[in-house]
Amino acid sequence: MLLIQAGTPPEDIRVIAGDLPQWFLAAAGCRPETMDIVKVYEGEPLPEPGQHRVAIITGSWSMVTDQHPWSEATAIWIRQAVTQGMPLMGVCYGHQLMAHALGGAVDYHPDGREMGSLEIEQLAVAEPDAWLAGCPPRFLAHLTHLQTILRLPNGARALARSAHDPHQIVRYSPTAVSVQFHPEFTSEVMAACINARAQVLRAEGLDPAAMLQGVSPTPTPLMLLRRFIETHAGTVSAGNSAASLNVAMGNHPELPQGTAK
Q1: Active site includes 92?
Q2: What would the 3-class secondary structure string for 174-199 be?
Q3: Is residue 48 flagged as an active site residue?
Q4: Which of 100, 167, 184, 193 is catalytic?
Q5: Which helix (H) or strand (E) holds 120?
Q6: N-term to C-term CA, the chain
Q7: Which of 15, 150, 182, 192 counts the most CB atoms within 10 A of its CB?
Q8: For residues 51-77, b (16+ Cβ closer than 10 Å) or e, as one string?
Q9: pLDDT digit string (tens) for 39-60?
Q10: Which candidate in 92, 114, 142, 167 is catalytic?
């Protein structure tokens, strides 16, 4: 499995919750040796598409519209990988970068920031999608973003929305999907992000205390992350597959982060 790391949290979040690879390994239930990590935000080169069974593109503290050279190079790689049919899953920044790479439009959301543990609603067109089979029609997800997909690429379909954003889950092809929310976040990570930005949130007219009070477990996004990996890479152990099923059935409120500092 390939983790395309598009950024790293600020120090005030890292000291509490660790770095992105730790979050994804813990959430996916994968062993470290099953994941190659490429820090594209530091200029590390990506391998040729197809050398891994699946790739996940992480969130970032950058903006897609910044068009950093490393980000634009990753967009070219995404186009090549999708053309080859390589399984890809984008998360937050990765979600927006996939849309940008494939011809969509990304920019700041006209209504500002979306942050907290918020409700996601599946759309009617999502019903036949096997990846979402068995998911509740409405579920909670951890969110924090300023930019959004304003226009989908040709042929892409939105499968879920929130009250704030109409493009919470997008399918581009049988093997390429993306999510605006963060399936790798635990409640601890979500709370750390809110606390780290409390002053900015208050300046924007938002209520960080209410956000913190609303932080809740998000088992369905965890299940979707694991299901994507299991479907395309098969790297999750049998024990973790059972845990994934428990998550889907609502019997596991939230997986422990385990590796958090």
Answers
A1: yes
A2: CCEEEECCCCCCCHHHHHHHHHHCHH
A3: no
A4: 184
A5: strand 114-122
A6: 24
A7: 182
A8: ebebbbbbbbebbbeeebebbeebbeb
A9: 999 999 999 999 999 999 999 9
A10: 92
pLDDT grade for 233, boundaries at 50, 70 and 90? confident
Domain definitions of the chain by residue range: 2-233
Neighbours of 112 (CB within 10 A): 12
Helix (H) or strand (E) holding 141: strand 138-145
The pLDDT, as a whole number, for residue 30 is 87
Are the beta carbons of 120 and 181 closer than 8 angstroms? yes
Q: Which CATH number is 2-233 given?
A: 3.40.50.880
Q: What is the DSSP letter of 34?
A: G
Give 151's Cβ-side CA count (13 Å radius).
6
Share of the chain above pLDDT 90, in %: 88
Whether pLDDT at 258 is above 70 = no
209 pLDDT band, cuts 50/70/90, is: very high
* Predicted pLDDT of residue 147: 98
> pTM of this prediction?
0.89
100 assigned to active site: no
- Residues sharing a CB contact under 8 Å with residue 11, sequence separation 6 or more, in sequence order: none
Cβ within 8 Å of residue 54, ≥6 positions away: 1, 2, 86, 87, 88, 89, 228, 229, 232, 233
Is the predicted pLDDT of residue 254 greater than 60, yes or no? no
Place of tokens 């609303």: 214
Q: Contact 69/104 with Cβ under 8 angstroms? A: no
